[in-house]
């Protein structure tokens, strides 16, 4: 399954061309698999985007490839050497985005780190690293973008997970971090609603073609995975992109403080692979 979109996302999909014309997105982790396709969807619908990452080569290559999907290649700005654990680096990225595009309307706090590790072998520093990237990084992203979100009555989308709904083994670090992200998003929805800012989470399940699935596929076959999912298939990055478009669109203008689970119904079974 290709982890990229093309013009058929608009021509064959439910969305209307140009709905995000004049809007600007700021995406941490935008060169990664899921957030990259979320960003592609926004670009195809007329948005401009800054994709923010740690690695210069990876971020610039992703931006170049993404700009090939749209008519104006100048609509994608790569900003690299940004570690979301460092607030000052995010402030610099926000300043560069505003300098280039003049504003920020949509924020995706997507940068994340994870690995499979039994609690017994998880060092305090390993736990701290994941919580710092996922949770502190999400806080830093929201905080650095706040002036722009207030000015433009913007919308923020955190990338969560379902690990913390029922306890997934070897994922204590990321489960703790994602539970914190849900709590952060809910608090911001309530606190910043008065400023016209909406805050929501997307919780992807097993998404095909991602690093997470690749790490699992050594031990569990795709058929075994699909058999545990009510909709009987893995999710796609396009599934996450469609939910992203909905949450940023005017169709969701009264939707804030929610977690949208994109997992084919799997978490209801309270199981894991
Ligand atoms: C146990 C590990 C580990 C592993 C790193 N550590 N990898 N412990 N198992 N596989 C420990 C290190 O030993 C160290 O602890 C601490 O974590 C910090 O490691 P560093 O490499 O110094 O940290 P850093 O450079 O900040 O890297 C952060 C990272 C890294 C999260 C550890 O993997 C990263 O940057 N990843 C970004 C990309 C990524 O993770 N993508 C996955 C996205 S989601 P000590 O005590 O030795 O100092 C995903 C879902 C997976 O993949 C789902 C699986 C089901």
TrEMBL record:
Gene3D superfamilies cross-referenced by the UniProt entry: NAD(P)-binding Rossmann-like Domain
Pfam hit, one: adh_short_C2
Assigned EC number: 1.3.1.124
GO-annotated cellular components: peroxisome
Signal sequence, renumbered to the chain: none
Record's catalysed reaction(s): a (2E,4Z)-dienoyl-CoA + NADPH + H(+) = a 4,5-saturated-(3E)-enoyl-CoA + NADP(+); a (2E,4E)-dienoyl-CoA + NADPH + H(+) = a 4,5-saturated-(3E)-enoyl-CoA + NADP(+)
InterPro entries found in the cross-reference section: DECR2-like (IPR045017), NAD(P)-bd_dom_sf (IPR036291), SDR_fam (IPR002347)
GO MF, one example: 2,4-dienoyl-CoA reductase (NADPH) activity
Alphabetically ordered keywords of this record: NADP, Oxidoreductase
Biological-process GO terms, alphabetical: fatty acid catabolic process
Protein name from the UniProt record: 2,4-dienoyl-CoA reductase [(3E)-enoyl-CoA-producing]
Organism annotation: Lachancea meyersii CBS 8951
